[in-house]
Amino acid sequence: MRHSLPEPYPPLYALLLGGWIRLLGDTEVVLRAFSVVAGLAALLAGWRWAHEALGRWPGLLAMGLLAVSPLAVANARDARMYSLETAFATICWWLTWRLASGRASGSRGVGRPVVSAVGLALASAGELWTLSLGLPTAFLQFVVAAAAGLGATRLGGVRAGLIRRGALQAAGAIVAGGLLFLPWLPAALRSAASGEPFWTPPPGSFDWAETWLTAVLGWRTDLPAWDLARGVIVLSALLGVGALARTPRPDARILALAIAAGMALTIIIWAVSTVRSIYDTRYLGASLPPVVLAVTAGIRAIGRLPVRRASVVPRAAALGLAVTLLGLSTLGTIRWLDDWRAQTGLAPATELATEIRGRARPNDLLLTIDPRSYFPMVYALERIRQADGGQDLLLKTWDRGDEPFYRGLTLIDEDHVVRRLDVLQSGWRGALPELRPGGRIWLVAAANAAREDLGFRPLEDAELVEIDRIVVRRGTDAAQARLVELARDP
Asked: What count of other Cβ atoms lies within 10 Å of the Cβ of residue 323?
């Protein structure tokens, strides 16, 4: 909790993962499995939402699109909080709609309103404690509940009363979840005001639309069918929201509102990021279920188009679209997984760590120039050490003192940080007492001019025996980063 205070991420994922590790260990499979479980929870909640709101077959289609979504699969294989956030957000969207539409009122068993309200309050607190973007997500869910309650004033009879009561319950549950988050709110606000994150450059003009498309189809567009399918997704989503909004059923109109709010989350974050970038597709898993339901509702609307003489044609067209989108989404996920398994630059730390381990000698020390590389390098070296039975390689991270502040540095123990001021005051032998005679320092740096000129000339101190320098040169696509050069400085 103390380490998480300056971080932009609330601590729930780390706390839950810590308990998970204590129960099952810390192998790579176990670390990733936690996100897989969260992904399955999001899948089941999304299917249930679509099943109740759109029907049996649309529910199965939505479940299929969520199951093969490249974004969902990517997040579910990462030992990060994104899959857990998607699970909490999906549950919130479903229960907000369920309560605000009156579907939970009068139901029995697990579906009764009090259970749905308690579940919504806990899930709302969960999405807030998992990712800072849970704040705008929860706000939009509150807007859906409030708008549903206000809209019920135009209705009459028992149905209006059920909607008003359910909307009030949903709004109250979301507020209760927000109150549970109050202890961490000051830390979240301080983090939001402390500086622009380094990992999110300003988004392009149409990145908001690209996020919707890549969430369903993936990042590859090297087939003509992909371009056609991208247009189908946009048109289907617009058709789905429009068809739901025009129906006389209040629950369908509230569903249209919830879907539109979920899709608007992406646009809102994009708009904010044009001023101060916080945009990253991985963060926006909360928009995935609403996008999928919009596409599913659009395909359902196509299947219900009134055709006098050939009523089977719309249904056949809807089935064809559903199968095509499922197929292309699956293909996009498979290709992405193939690239990931092939280690085509997606995680250079493993390749670098393997090279270092093969050449390292006792008493060597690895000094990471950029603290952002510290964490993946530590994990990769630890896995290699466990595999080959080798000795630990000492790892340190460099803090020059005048580079842009990186919050993650606070997560590194003090005795793992080498500060330039300490070197100037005590020399390298004083700053690095672990460096033994004959030991070498390994540097990890990026090969662009800005990173090469970070002031590492002091490492040419004559007291050092030699320096091995590993340079990672990144291409125009950061996802294609790879080891291309090993150079030894005398």
From this structure: 12
pLDDT of 35 > 90? The answer is yes
Phi, psi angles (nearest 5°) of residue 223: -125, 140
- The tokens describing 308, both together, are 């006098």
DSSP lists the bridge partners of residue 395 as 366
In a domain, 363, yes or no: yes
Are both 309 and 434 inside the same structural domain? no
Token digits for 64? 């299929």
Q: Does 2 reside within a domain?
A: no
Domain boundary among 304, 326, 341: 341
Strand partners, 446: 472
Check whether 137 has a pLDDT greater than 80: yes
DSSP β-bridge partners for residue 441: 365, 467
Helix (H, G, I), strand (E, B) or coil at 347: coil
**Same domain, residue pair 302 and 361:** no
Contacts of 96 (CB under 8 A, 6+ apart): 120, 141, 144, 145, 170, 174, 258
Domain residues for the domain of 359 are 348-489
pLDDT at 480 over 50: no
What global pTM score does this model have? 0.78
Domain match, 292 and 374 both: no
Amino acid at 203: P
467-473 and 482-489: which strand pairing? antiparallel
**What are the φ/ψ torsions at residue 171 (nearest 5 degrees)?**
-60, -40
Question: Of 312, 341, 370, at which residue does a domain stop?
Answer: 341
The answer to whether the beta carbons of residues 202 and 315 sit under 8 Å apart is no
pLDDT value at residue 17: 92
Give the strand pairing for 467-473 and 394-399.
unpaired
Long-range contacts of 152-160 (CB under 8 A, 24+ apart): 152/250, 155/250, 159/102, 159/250
User: Which DSSP category does 109 fall into?
Assistant: G
Residues 157-187 have pLDDT tens digits of 667 888 889 999 999 999 999 999 999 888 8
Query: Three-state SS for 366?
Result: strand
Cβ neighbour number for residue 489 with a 10 Å cutoff: 10
Residues 6+ apart with CB under 8 A from 28: 383
Shared domain for 113 and 92, answered yes or no, is yes
Residue 36, CB-side half-sphere exposure with 13 Å CA sphere: 8
- Backbone CA torsion sign across 245, 251, 254, 258: negative
Is there a single domain that holds both residue 30 and residue 152?
Answer: yes
